[in-house]
Amino acid sequence: MPIYEYKCSSCDHQFSHLHKRLGEPAPACPSCGGNKIEKLLSTFSAKVSSGSSQRCSVSNSCPASASCAGGSCPFG
Questions:
Q1: Are 15 and 31 in contact (CB under 8 A)?
Q2: Based on the structure, what is the number of domains in the chain?
Q3: What is the mean pLDDT of the chain?
Q4: Are 27 and 5 in contact (CB under 8 A)?
Q5: Are 73 and 50 in contact (CB under 8 A)?
Q6: What pLDDT, in 10s, does the model give residues 34-69?
Q7: Strands (E), 1-76
Q8: Residues whose CB falls within 8 Å of the CB of residue 26, separated by 6 or more in sequence, listed in order
Q9: Contacts from 50-59 at CB under 8 Å and sequence distance 24+?
Q10: Which residues touch 63 (CB under 8 Å, ≥6 apart)?
């Protein structure tokens, strides 16, 4: 079930909506009840695991010291 971000063109209210099935139409604005709804581009996050030889791409060393995250740099 995807969650989409929307913005109402009538009142500029931004909101999220959990769709129960694909192809479901955009909901009415929960703030004003308007139907002029625009789907926004959403960001996402992902956890990426890296090995202990991975280094920070900015400084070429781990800024968090040797004790960070079991030897792997969380900034790499």
A1: yes
A2: 1
A3: 76
A4: no
A5: yes
A6: 999 999 987 776 777 655 554 555 555 555 555 455
A7: 3-8, 14-18, 37-40
A8: 4, 6, 17, 37, 39
A9: 50/76
A10: 56, 73, 75
pLDDT for residue 51? 54
Instruction: Say what the pTM is.
Output: 0.54
Domain ranges, residue 25:
3-40
pLDDT, position 13 = 96
Six token digits for residue 52? 């202990």
The pLDDT score that the predictor gives to residue 8 is: 97
Q: Which of 45, 43, 25, 34 is nearest to 7 (CA)?
A: 34
Q: Looking at the chain, list the stretches that DSSP marks H as alpha helix, in order from N- to C-terminal side.
A: none
Q: Does a structural domain hold residue 73? A: no
